[in-house]
Amino acid sequence: MTLDLASRSLPDLWETLGNIDAVHGAYYLLMHVLFGLFGTDLLVLRLPSALAGALAAAGVTALGARLAGTRAGILAGLSFAVLPDIQKYSQEGRSYSLVCALVVWATYFLVSAVNTGRRRPVTPWIVYGALISAACILHQFAALALVVHGLVVPGCARRPWAYTAALVVAGVAPLAALGMAQSQQVAWIEGATGGDYRRFAILASVAMALSYFAPPRNADKVSREVPFSLRAIALPLFIMPTALLLLMSLYKPLYVERYVLYGLVGLALLLGTVLDRVPELGRGLRVAALVAVALAVALLIPESLRLRTPEGRSDNVTDLAVTLSREYAPGDGILYMPVKLRAWSLAYPSVSRDMFDVTQKLTPAVSHGLYGTEWPSSQIRERMRSRARILVVTYPKGRYAEITETELMKERVLADYFTRAHTIRVNGAQVTVYKPRTTAAATELASS
Prior knowledge:
- With 448 residues, the protein is α+β, with helices and mostly antiparallel strands.
- It has 2 domains: 41-276, no CATH class; 317-447, no CATH class.
- It is built from 21 helices and 6 strands.
- It has a 4-stranded mixed sheet with strand order 1-4-6-5, with helices on both faces.
- Strand 5 (418-426) and strand 6 (429-436) form a beta hairpin.
- The longest helix has 27 residues, at 42-68.
- It is globular and about 75 Å long.
């Protein structure tokens, strides 16, 4: 999606954002500039996220060092870097890794602003406001981090924080209003499941246990100058954004873990400060702690290696392109069910350019949308029946898919006039090849 939208001309991109996906508009504009400077390819697409992941890890290290000492900071930064979700989204061509980096450095400058509050310098507050504003502009759910900051900031800094937060909200409000007007684009999000709540409860319990072992205030001279404890910031930053998003999802389904990826900053800070205390433990406890750390690292290595392969992508567009290229033959048709899966073809336009898209009337670029526009149902029906075979791209069984009259019509045509030959599965999707029926029943249907 990012590759397609950021590759469009600025007038086309601007018109598209007026219709849909304005919440990601700032990131698309950033990538448009980078594509213009360095070319449009997957390396340029993913490099900003990789750099942002490194910048976020450095921010966690700096914040941990400031709040709990140098060694705790280094251990927190290392813990952050090996978390699977951080590794995953540091490779994706989306804004989540960059938002995470902005939030952690905004938190660092919030601590700096509070620390120097008695001398009343405005620079840390300006930097804090600029960073959290940029995070909210890139993704609106970064505003949940602003809520956390408001709850943990000490009384001596509440007034300057409130002024800064008011300016941030005022600056982001127009984009938030536009995003709410385009809320149909998140209709694909299912309600949070019982498994989501259980997983959050388990992780929150682990974080609270870690916070119990974390010192309330480090004895380090630098840390004594900061009117925060690491525990006071890290625990709310990990728990509250996810908790608030889950609560919001009771009213409208909005919960997606990556929307609050920056909450893992809090978990990493807690891990760093607990690991920092291992040398203080008795010999038996030290050995147990070292064994636990070694076991955790051993378990993380296979996952880290998997995340660096195409199979580690939640949506493996490369594998899909290879599969379609191998299976497609002249006279075939491609059918995306639902239509939003057409976005997968945009990463490899050279592969999909010569394929017959059964339902597409206008391309996404021409229609100034994300997925293009479709022909009326009657024409889709005729176009389907005119194909030698149809390659149907769908979500894996069990994953949410839109149910509309048009989608039901496509399924009926496939059931009446085609028979399933075989299915090929890729990460996040599957391709099913349908061949025409050759039975008398099919002939009767065609003549009716």
